[in-house]
Specification:
Mean pLDDT: 96
Number of domains: 1
Strand order of the largest sheet: 1-3-2
Low-confidence stretches: none
Length: 55
């Protein structure tokens, strides 16, 4: 699972496919909520606010 900014979305997708050999599901963080999980405040690859959840 990756939480990423727009700039790093492609990198997260590439890494996900390399590991799991299947395309990920993509979600905009502003469009989803979870009861037992809070999104990190920074991208997995930089300090920018995340926009996407890649799972």
């Amino acid at each position: 699972m990756y939480v990423v900014c727009r700039e790093h979305l492609e990198q997260a997708i590439d890494e996900f496919v390399d590991i799991y050999e299947t395309p990920p599901d993509l979600y905009e963080l502003s469009s989803v909520t979870f009861t037992d999980w809070a999104a990190p405040t920074t991208c997995n690859f930089c300090k920018t606010a995340p926009v996407y959840l890649v799972v």
